[in-house]
Amino acid sequence: MSDLLTPLMLVMDGDEVDAFWTFNGLMERITHNFDMEKLMKELKDLSTVMKYLDPALKAYIDSNDPRLYFCFRWLLVQFKREFSFDDVMRLWEILWTGKPCKNFHLLFAYAILETEKNTLIENRFSSTEILRVGAPGSCSGLFDRIV
Description:
Distance between the termini: 26 Å
Strand content: under 5%
Number of helices: 10
Low-confidence stretches: none
Order of helices and strands: HHHHHHHHHH
């Protein structure tokens, strides 16, 4: 929870009341992330997105981690650990609007993979190495290319 609350406390300049109510609204919005069955469905939906947008990338990922467990944290904490604080704040603002669609976070996750596709395939990354693509801070510099 601190992954989600800490940035809110900073943005709210320590105002605990505003941070609490913002956090409460956030939790209502992403409560499904803490239901394993629903989060697994989101990973499956991400796999479906890849199936239609980039079958070659999906085939490569399927040969390493067909359940996309390396994306688990991305969805659980809304990419908070993958990007700089400023980029996360920009991304959260986009995600929380619900626009351009309610599943934009899945398209964003796909965009990370698509952006790193050549690196993954050329270097024959295993599932453990694919996980490093989303390691804390590893997506620095990707945000502006994706958005």
